[in-house]
Amino acid sequence: MAALIASTTTANSASTSTPEVASWQDVGYRCPRPGFFLGDDGSMATAKILTPSNELPAKWNMGRLSVLPLELMHQIVDDLAETDIRALVALRNCNRASAAVVDSFPDFATVAAFPRALGALVRLAPPSPTNSSQISLRALARCLRTTSCASCLRQREAAGDISSDVPYGDFIYLLAPERVCYSCFRSLPEYLPVARFAAAGNHLPQLHQQHKDLLDSQPLTRITVPPGRYGVLARLTQPVDLFDRREVYAAEEPAGLDDEGSSSSASSSTSLRNITTPEVDRVSTVRGRPVVSGKRGLSVSPTPGNSTRPDPLRYAAVIPAPYWALDNKTVRPTAETPVDRGYACRACAQTDRKSAGHAGWADPLARYTEKGLQRHVADPRYGGRVLRRRVGLTDIYEHDAPRRGHFPPPVEFGATADLARRYEAVILVPAGSVVGSRM
Fold first, then answer.
1. In a domain, 102, yes or no
2. Number of domains in the chain
3. Residue 329 and residue 332: Cα distance in Å, rounded?
4. Is the sign of the CA dihedral 211, 213, 219, 224 positive or negative?
5. Which residues contact 293 (CB under 8 A, 6 or more apart)?
6. Residue 252 domain flag
7. Distance from first CA to last CA of the chain, Å, rounded?
8. Are residues 231 and 321 both part of a single domain?
9. Which residues of 370-381 are buried (b: 16+ CB within 10 A; e: fewer)?
10. Domain that includes residue 154, residue range
11. What digits encode the pLDDT tens for the residues 369-378?
């Protein structure tokens, strides 16, 4: 018996190797985000918007525009980029001469080279003529060239933190536009857009006439999102206009609108807060399964904890945002320039699920650029290194410091697994699409 115990102890000790220092390449890994985002169906691929130059008419004549000096043509392109992106794309697709002029515009070239960005501008732009503003191409190009989360950067600047190690923003919130990290995207109220639906119904929130006039009369940034699947276990059943919540509140205050749509000088900034409140009012059946339709025209599966899941409309206002890993920032990216989706940290992702508080180190949902991950691994707050040890056939990664945070698992991860297991196989991008599965 003693010999058996001794042999078992020896085998267990042999199955656990001595810890060794892991490189940042071993610590980092790729991990997709849960849920469906704008363009996951491939409809916003740049190849579907721009005609390749070699397929354009071989003409180097711009007709009456040929008499204009090049500086004036650049001004026309600049104006169209901010006012009518569809007209600018149509001009670019006329012939090779017009393509050469438009493609030479730096901001247009930047947006066209980025996955989904130009497609989002064209597909989601409000109809013309309208008083609404489209997404600024210039502002979008500027944020595409950065990597930092704009919300985290503002918070650090407000706190007087001048550290350059700002979290990587792996999404573009289109209505601002600005980069945002997953933690800010899923939780902060400013990234939940105000919605106006194309068709009213008993199960949809009703806007007062003054609120409708406000959204129509003010030059608010607006995108028109088509029906489709957004978020986790949710489907948009009709087109919806989305407005930036911060812009709407700023426009409401001078108008003095209250919750009833009448003029009031008090509490005007809360008058549209209940438009996108996650409420449930009826149950129907789809394919023999019970489905709850929320008050925003979204079909939502009745799963526990639905109120803590990110609102599906959040997913309809962002696109995944990889970054260009260019050492030389003066190099203009092209469609062939590789993009990087960022890394997750294996050590932080292996949160201690056995404890009630799910103890860990940094946010397991965070993504890092290559340089950001190297700084994270060397961060003295987490021991300055990551140790790897093998337990049986599994590699365990741990920061060389005591666990310091508590990270309960987000409900959307379990809901995504439930969707794949019980309902249908999830196909994010059709076969043959030029867009990567999570880019």
1. no
2. 2
3. 8
4. positive
5. 203, 280, 281, 282, 283, 284, 299, 300
6. yes
7. 58
8. yes
9. eebbbebbebee
10. 32-44+146-336
11. 999 999 999 9
